[in-house]
Design goal:
single chain; elongated; 38% helix; 16% strand; five-stranded mixed beta sheet
Length: 248
């Protein structure tokens, strides 16, 4: 038994690594970490574009906007990436209109943006422009609930009064849709003969404004101020002189 123990001990001594020796897999030169911000600005912008526009028609709700993950890394990535997101993606805005009741106009024609979204757009300034925006027009009382969802169910879609789709690039293209005219079975509103032309007139006013905005020199896209002006077209007031509803 003694001899066997000696042999095992001797064998163990031969297989133990030497003290102070650290095994390594690479004996070549040390590699430096890759820094994304070391890339040229043009290449970074291309990467942002691929990150945001992975889908064929990427859509975002501006009313419920949240920072994408890449914009949360640091201030520089946020200031660089968000203008790409706003200009290259399709944004949806839900607007309330008081076309059925001229006296309830105070909360009509508002963008309904969160405070953080407004601050973000104001900090970016002229760098934040939108080239594809769709305004979904609801009754004033329905707009707040509809803003919670980007994709509406069939029941909510039926409550849309009208739509205004704006694509500013490469050439301005404005499409309007009076959904009330497309409904089957008539309208559940009073005086449809008055309401339908009023919606048409309101859409025409908004379309005229958009075309005027797109004709500015060095126009790059719609700003936050532009979006606010367009939304105000759906805030109607009663003109006491003519007793007609006009955009406020």
């Amino acid at each position: 038994m003694v001899r066997r123990s000696v042999r095992l001990s001797a064998g163990n001594e031969e297989t133990l690594p030497e003290e102070g020796v650290v095994p390594t897999c690479d004996s070549g030169p040390e590699t430096k970490p890759f820094r994304f911000l070391d890339l040229p600005a043009e290449l970074r912008n291309r990467i942002y574009s691929y990150a945001f526009c992975g889908e064929s028609t990427p859509r975002y709700s501006l009313s419920k906007f949240q920072y994408p993950p890449i914009a949360l890394v640091c201030k520089q990535l946020r200031s660089e990436s968000l203008p790409i997101l706003f200009s290259e993606c399709h944004f949806v805005l839900t607007i309330g209109s008081n076309v059925l009741n001229a006296h309830s106009w105070r909360s009509a024609g508002n963008l309904g943006l969160q405070g953080g979204t407004k601050r973000c757009l104001r900090l970016l300034g002229s760098a934040a422009v939108f080239r594809h925006v769709t305004f979904r027009i609801f009754a004033e009382s329905e707009a707040q609930g509809a803003r919670k969802y980007l994709d509406l169910n069939r029941w909510s879609q039926a409550k849309i009064w009208a739509e205004l789709d704006i694509q500013s690039h490469p050439t301005p293209n404005v499409t309007t849709r009076n959904q009330f005219r497309e409904r089957d079975g008539g309208l559940s509103v009073h005086r449809p003969s008055v309401i339908l032309p009023q919606i048409d007139l309101t859409l025409q006013t908004a379309e005229t404004l958009v075309k005027k905005l797109c004709q500015r020199e060095e126009f790059k896209g719609l700003t936050l101020s532009d979006l606010d002006k367009i939304a105000k077209c759906f805030r109607l007031k009663l003109d006491p002189a003519t007793n007609e509803m006009v955009c406020g």
